[in-house]
Specification:
alpha+beta, 496 residues, ten-stranded mixed β-sheet, 16 helices, globular, single chain
């Protein structure tokens, strides 16, 4: 339930009057409801920026350097209530309709009712505040199939995984936690970098500055953290409930971990002749549909979609085009976001890792989309996230803290990843959204197998087969640099 401001009783004002007044004020500021207003207020609070106008000024000019460790010059206004409702010093609602006065800020906001403009303003603020972590990763050095659609594993097992034989005798960095799992300590001694989770957006770049991974944290501020914690707890409760209703599988002795899991969605590339739904009993389908309709799940997917649009819009568009084309071709396929929710996170599949201790060894999810592909992992549970539960991105040399509720986008088909173990008695679950690379190949083959394509259109098939490396490079270039994203929203702002 959303937090709202408590309006004092006023003679002659009914509850209906108060609601209508509140709705008019929200509409005048360009918000569709109280939740959207609260999100805006909490984002501003977390970024320590007083207004979107100030956020735009702070982010103007990509050439300007910013000290990201220094708090911003703006504080959350004292009269901005935790709900996002502005109040006067006596605590009564400061209605511009009743006072007959409209502030300069309100006039500006009224002039910005266009939702696209508001989104661009928010993104400028995020781009200005983002913590950028550079790596030396190069696209040509990451393993992928000859056609670029999927990752690649060594067939003979001879490939040494990144981090194998790591020297662990070096000095421990000053930033290292005093009490942590030995595996984490060894990685830090071996020159892996620790990336703390402090709620701010964090991006990870390749050698050319392309954003190939990013972490979605909490909004920030006391009220934001409290709301996020409540939502994550409710989502965790829903996951735990579903775990009792589905026939989860357990894959002991495999790199993906000795824990229980359950699948939902559709896939292609495991011998199927067309994309197929993952098999479910009737009771399991009912349990999944109930989970996918949970308000906290819907809210989580909205946040993930917005984050994807913010940090990798071209990659998102690529996934949307493939997902929509396949769903039009076969509407019976299961969605990870039911149509009735109004959200369409364009991944084909969702895996719920049901723990209760979800920890994986080094591996790559090689059948996921590789060329311009990502998955997203959202962690849940009750664990000491500074001691363990981190996600390790080995080719990037990074150990990423994952506070319960954090989500991490990264190309899991080509980046070797693992999890730092957690303490005995703790719990860690995760939700993982992804799409098989074979789905993109099937769409490109005009919705047929490659065998059929080769028989029906041999010339077109041969031309396609010769373009594997080009396809790989084009997919990788869909990841943008921060300066490219900033220039894009600035241009959109001028156009609006």
């Amino acid at each position: 339930m959303s937090e709202v401001a408590v309006y004092p009783a006023r003679p002659g004002l009914s509850v209906k009057d108060l609601i209508e007044t509140a709705e008019r004020e929200l509409a005048s500021l360009g918000f569709k409801d109280i939740d959207e207003a609260a999100d805006a207020a909490l984002t501003l609070s977390g970024l320590r920026i007083e207004s979107w106008e100030a956020a735009e000024e702070a982010s103007e000019g990509d050439s300007k350097t910013r000290d990201r460790d220094t708090p911003g010059a703006f504080e959350m206004p004292a009269n901005l209530h935790a709900s996002g409702c502005r109040q006067d010093e006596e605590g009564t609602s400061n209605s511009s309709e009743e006072s007959g006065q409209i502030s300069t800020s309100a006039k500006r906001k009224r002039a910005r009712k266009d939702k696209g403009h508001g989104q661009n303003s928010k993104r400028r603020a995020l781009y200005a505040k983002a913590i950028a972590v550079a790596s030396s990763a190069k696209p040509e050095g990451l393993p992928h199939s000859s056609q670029g659609y999927i990752g690649l594993e060594a067939l003979d097992g001879s490939e040494a995984a990144p981090g194998d034989g790591l020297a662990t005798k070096g000095p421990l960095p000053a930033s290292a936690p005093k009490d942590a799992h030995p595996e984490l300590v060894n990685l830090l001694r071996g020159n892996y970098a620790l990336v703390p989770s402090d709620g701010r957006p964090t991006i990870f770049t390749d050698v050319e500055g392309r954003i190939i991974s990013w972490r979605v944290g909490s909004v920030g501020g006391e009220c934001g953290e409290a709301r996020d914690e409540r939502r994550n707890q409710n989502l965790l409760t829903a996951v735990e409930k579903m775990a009792t209703q589905v026939k989860s599988k357990k894959s002991a002795g495999v790199p993906r971990g000795d824990h229980r899991w359950a699948h939902w969605g559709y896939s292609y590339g495991g011998g199927e002749t067309k994309p197929m739904n993952k098999q479910q009993t009737r009771l399991e389908r009912d349990a999944w549909n109930e989970f996918l309709s949970e308000p906290e799940y819907i809210e989580a997917t909205k946040i993930l979609h917005d984050s994807w649009q913010t940090w990798a819009p071209d990659v998102l568009q690529d996934y949307e085009e493939c997902h929509q084309a396949i769903m039009l071709h076969d509407p019976s396929l299961d969605r990870v976001c039911p149509a009735k929710t109004g959200v369409d996170l364009p991944f084909a599949s969702l895996t719920a890792n049901l723990g209760p201790q979800t920890v994986c060894d080094k591996h790559r999810d090689v059948k996921n989309r590789a060329n311009g592909g990502v998955c997203v992992v959202k962690t849940l549970g009750k664990y000491d996230w500074q001691w363990g539960g981190h996600i390790v991105l080995h080719e990037l040399g990074l150990v990423v803290e994952m506070k319960p509720g954090d989500a991490l986008f990264f190309p899991s088909a080509i980046i070797t990843h693992s999890t730092i173990p957690i303490l005995d008695g703790e719990t860690r679950y995760s939700l993982v959204w992804y799409s098989a690379g074979g789905l993109f190949r099937w769409k490109d083959a005009d919705f047929q197998t490659h065998v059929d394509w080769r028989q029906d259109s041999p010339e077109e098939y041969r031309r396609h087969q010769k373009e594997g490396e080009l396809r790989w490079n084009q997919g990788w270039k869909k990841f943008a640099t921060l300066s490219q994203l900033s220039a894009r929203v600035s241009k959109a702002g001028v156009a609006s």
